[in-house]
């Protein structure tokens, strides 16, 4: 379907899986929908699976939005801790639409966890507690990151939450990033696993691409591994003239906990900067005007010695030290303090998913995951903006599971389109308000609400009902909600 058809389906308030090839305009459409929702005063949560992807909609990662941090699964105690965070619960309760972009990199377990937290925070048993949820992505792109020692991650379409959400599928068929027919044929050949000699030899030719820097702007370098990213960034930094500014991470608290905090922290232990260095913010700070993923260049250093960053959208931001901490019962166990930046001439292919680039130099010689080559190559608009250092066999592969599932997605998208004509139109303000309640609040009026029925209470209920009392009268008599009275009467077979 085309963008405007998908937009109509979104506006109808359904849970949606929005998909399509790289560059089909998925994120562009999400932005259009977000604008529409804001104009209609609908509260929308804007998130993505990675920080950079979220910046394309001025959102934040789903992990930090939902307060789940690095958790993939959670014990009851951990879930309890999340829903004791008033700020997070309030966020869940007031959100009417939740958007998550780049869901191919979101693990199935994590979607199930989010779904559960949403239900608990909103006090509703509907999927995601009744919010409209829009998942967006493309399973031919990167799968969730596998961590050593953890069970293998699965695509979100294998989660229980996905099954229960009753998703309408919107499969976009346009192409807005690449206009060249030759390039598109190559990308589509990778996408449908039909790479032939012509494609391979044209990719080899890309080793010789020469960039004219002024016409193409910044060349972003993409690598499959962090190690190469770091090497490349350090090499670029060394080339810059000018004074080095060194920032060392301060660590405090219980050493073992501080160490594990450091492993999960995107800021490096030793950050070295110079004027002209390409950088990326690695934390959210809305007051200062940056989020995890904001890209820029070091413009100067202020009198306190902190770097001043010229962001890609033209803002000047002072990068002051930030803290990362672990707390338990309000007590700090460990804390890190560092300038929230890392070098960013080169980034991993993972972080590039969602970007549109004018020029990229990609090294696909160590690809280790299906979809990696497709993501890296599809970032640029044209072949003249693409230099390939090398590629291996994996670089031309996509997930086999996805090849089969894609057929189903296409069918479901056609179905959704056929239905579109017959769907009732509704503006978002007509959407029922989120069904949220707290047991405490209900018990102010009905002290016995949600409590287990005792035999004595049940006897009074039956007697009251037989003497002709209405559910409302019975509700007052027994201190329970009218709904609770009705369901008990149904259970006892006294009413239908
Ligand atoms: N309807 C449109 N009109 C103009 N430009 C568009 C449109 N849809 C997408 N684009 C542009 O095309 C590029 C790719 O779109 P994007 O939404 O990032 O694709 P996807 O998220 O599907 O990979 C972006 O630069 C985007 O701004
Ligand atoms: Mg996108």
Descriptive report:
The model has no long low-confidence stretch (mean pLDDT 90). Helix 1 packs parallel to helix 2 (26-39) and helix 19 (471-478) packs across helix 20 (482-491). Helices cover 37% and strands 19% of the residues. The longest helix has 21 residues, at 400-420. The protein has helices at 3-11, 26-39, 51-55, 62-65, 76-83, 86-94, 108-122, 160-164, 181-191, 197-205, 213-216, 226-239, 255-264, 349-352, 372-377, 400-420, 439-445, 455-466, 471-478, 482-491; strands spanning 16-20, 44-48, 60-61, 97-101, 132-136, 168-172, 219-223, 245-248, 250-253, 270-273, 278-281, 295-301, 307-311, 316-318, 322-328, 331-338, 341-343, 346-348, 359-364, 386-391. A 6-stranded parallel sheet has the order 3-2-4-5-1-6. The protein has a 5-stranded antiparallel sheet with strand order 14-13-12-11-17. The chain has 20 helices and 20 strands. With 496 residues, the protein is an alpha/beta fold. The protein is globular and about 90 Å long. Residues 26-27, 101, 354 line the site of magnesium ion.
């Amino acid at each position: 379907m085309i963008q405007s058809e998908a937009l109509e389906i979104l506006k109808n308030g359904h849970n949606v899986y929005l998909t399509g090839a790289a560059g089909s305009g998925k994120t562009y459409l999400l932005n259009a929908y977000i604008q529409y929702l804001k104009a209609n005063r609908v509260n929308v949560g804007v998130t993505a699976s990675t920080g950079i992807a979220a910046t394309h909609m001025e959102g934040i990662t789903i992990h930090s939005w939902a307060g789940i941090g690095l958790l993939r699964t959670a014990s009851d105690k951990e879930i309890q801790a999340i829903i004791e965070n008033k700020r997070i619960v309030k966020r869940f309760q007031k959100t009417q639409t939740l958007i998550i972009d780049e869901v191919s990199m979101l693990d199935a377990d994590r979607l199930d966890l989010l779904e559960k937290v949403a239900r608990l925070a909103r006090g509703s048993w509907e999927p995601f507690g009744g919010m409209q949820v829009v998942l967006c992505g493309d399973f031919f792109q990167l799968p969730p990151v596998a961590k050593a020692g953890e069970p293998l991650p699965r695509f979100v379409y294998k989660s229980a939450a996905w099954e229960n959400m009753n998703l309408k599928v919107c499969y976009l068929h346009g192409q807005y990033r690449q206009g060249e027919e030759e390039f598109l044929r190559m990308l589509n050949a990778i996408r449908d696993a039909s790479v032939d000699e012509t494609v391979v030899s044209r990719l080899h030719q890309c080793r010789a691409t020469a960039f004219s820097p002024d016409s193409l702007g910044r060349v972003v370098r993409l690598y499959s591994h962090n190690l190469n990213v770091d090497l490349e960034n350090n090499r670029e930094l060394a080339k810059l003239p000018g004074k080095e500014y060194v920032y060392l991470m301060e660590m405090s608290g219980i050493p073992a906990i501080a160490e594990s905090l450091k492993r999960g922290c995107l800021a490096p232990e030793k950050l070295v900067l110079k004027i002209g260095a390409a950088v990326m913010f690695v934390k959210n700070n809305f007051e200062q005007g940056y989020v995890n993923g904001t890209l820029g260049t070091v413009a100067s250093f202020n009198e306190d010695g902190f770097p001043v960053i010229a962001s890609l959208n033209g803002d000047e931001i002072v990068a002051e030290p930030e803290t990362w901490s672990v707390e338990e019962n309000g007590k700090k166990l460990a804390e890190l303090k560092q300038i929230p930046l890392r070098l960013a001439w080169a980034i991993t292919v993972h972080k590039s998913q969602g970007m549109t680039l004018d020029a990229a130099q990609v090294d696909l010689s160590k690809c280790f995951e299906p979809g990696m080559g497709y993501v890296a190559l599809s970032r640029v608009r044209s072949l003249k903006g693409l230099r390939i250092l090398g590629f291996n066999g994996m670089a031309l592969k996509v997930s086999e599971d996805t090849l089969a599932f894609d057929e189903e997605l296409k069918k479901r998208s056609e179905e959704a389109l056929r239905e579109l004509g017959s769907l009732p139109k509704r503006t978002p303000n007509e959407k029922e308000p989120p069904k949220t309640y707290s047991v405490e609040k209900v018990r102010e009026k009905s002290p016995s609400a949600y409590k287990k029925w005792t035999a004595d209470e049940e006897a009074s209920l039956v007697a009251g009902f037989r003497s002709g009392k209405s559910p409302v009268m019975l509700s007052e008599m027994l201190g329970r909600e009218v709904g609770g009275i009705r369901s008990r009467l149904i259970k006892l077979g006294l009413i239908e």
